[in-house]
Structure formats: C-alpha cells, structure tokens
Amino acid sequence: MFLRQTWGFGGGKQALESAPNQLAGMVDKRRLVVTLGNLSIIDIFDSNAYAHDGRTQFLNWALSTYGPYDYAGDTRGYTWGGAAEYYYDDWVLRAGRFMVPLESNGQRLDTRITKYHSDQVELEHDHVIGGQSGKVRLLAFRSKEIMGSFSDALAYAALNGGTPDVALVRKERIKYGYGINLEQSLGNDIGVFARLSRNDGKTETYSFSEIERSMTAGVSVKGSSWHRDNDTVGFAVIQNGLSKAHQEYLAAGGLGVFIGDGQLNYRPERIMEAYYSYSLSKAVSLTADVQRFYNPAYNADRGPVTVGSLRLHAEF
C-alpha cells in the first residue's frame, strides 16, 4: 500500500507500459516522482530488464538484486518509507529512506525512522550503442541499525569462552555498500546483464542475504526464433564472497541467519542458473529452472549441489 505522485516538467513525452506497481500512460521525460508507503525497496531501486523479478526470471537472490545489498525489509521483504525519483531526459536520480527491522531478519519494523533507517541513492543513465538500448545504474546504501560485529563477537568469545555469537555484541552500528548494474540489448530478442557489488562486511546480515562481495552476469533470450514469442530462456553465472571478518567468525563456529558450518574451509561460492519460461497463455507461464552450486555456503568441503525447480506464475 503506497501513495505515488508525479509532477511533470516537460521535455517531451514518454510512454509507460502497464507493469506491477505501475499504470500505463504518457508522462513527461522530465518529472519528479515521489512514493510513500509500504513497499519493497527493490520495486524502486536496482531494476534490471533481464534479472530482477523472481516471479518470471531467475530464482537466485543474487540475480534479483545485488547480493550484498542488505536492503531494509521485514521477513517478507517489505518496509515503510519514501523515495523520490527525478527523471531528466536520459538520466534518473533516486533517493530513499526506509524503516529497518527491530532485529536481524525480524518481522517487526523499528518505527524510529529518524534514528534507525536505511538510506539509498541511485544514479541511472539510459544509452544507445549500435542502435540498441541499454542502462547503467550506480547505487550506494547506508544503514543505521542495532547490529553485531563479527570482530567483536570473536573478541567476546576469546575473552569469555564459548562460540562467537553476534547477538551478544549488538549495538548501534553503520553498514554501507555499493554496486554497479548493467543491462544491454543485443537485438529484439537478446539482452545481457551484469552486476558488481560489495558491502563493508563488518556486521551481521540484517535483512537480506549472507553475501558481501558479488559478481553476476548472464543472458536472456526471447523465443521468437523458434516461434515462441512469449517464451524466455535465461542463463547466468554468479560468484559470491564473504569478508575476512565474516570468514573468521564462521570458522570459529559462529552462525548466521542462513549459514554456519564450523571449521569453515572457505572458498567463494560459485553458481550457474538456467531457466526456460514457457507461456501457457497471456496471463500464465510455467518455468523450469536448474541451479548448480559449487562451494555452497562458502565451504569447499560441501557440494557441488544441483537444485531443480518448477514455477507456475499467473498475472491478471
């Protein structure tokens, strides 16, 4: 539930297609858009035409957005806040502030948004190369939350004994990170994409994934060449990594929200994902997806693992 207001400043007209959270219509190329309410941050920030929507595209979280982007949200990925977007011809500048959870990956949000919050700013540029459109996005985020530090947890365990636990050393801290997002059309039916991102890696995961460095790249192909215009096939590769402090915390037996192995034999996690989305009708699609994980949870002693999935999506 959110309120969105647009102010037009001329510069010509631009057509918007109907999409989730967006009504079709004509808007000014130069405009200010303000959104306030309850929403997912990545419905506004870090979009990508080929790798963003887990309902219709890739399933892996590191392909839906930057893996290290610990964007604020409750356990469903939603939060309260606001964002402003200023469009000026081929440029877009976005900024937003949103509530953070009261505790790591918790459902309840901290309403003290002036004290604890997640801020993000993004610069986007549209371009044309060889007659084909593309976009470049740069994003930076900064979150102020009650978090545990990996190094503090290790020091506390060394002094008091036991297994390191970030929950024992939580206090007011800052987390920041950044990323670059590329998408490029190579024709009417083919597009490629890539993301490169990292965060400071000092504190526990608060809202998203246990990734602190990430590189992703892939391709998306429409089915026109085999007479299936509404089908899509996609392939992507991922490499995720952890900070040195996080590695040491896990190696000492510490646990995170999703990972924790004890005696960690660290290696970067590498993943390949492929999917085929088969259009059953204009509103319904069936997707077959397969992922291959090497060094799952950053442990060279584990895997490889193959995960297959089926997804049925209906949109009216």
From TrEMBL:
GO terms for molecular function: porin activity. InterPro entries: Carb-sel_porin_OprB, OprB_sf. One of its GO terms (cellular component) is membrane. One of its GO terms (biological process) is carbohydrate transport. Signal peptide: none annotated. Belongs to the OprB family. This is Carbohydrate-selective porin, OprB family protein. It comes from Collimonas pratensis.
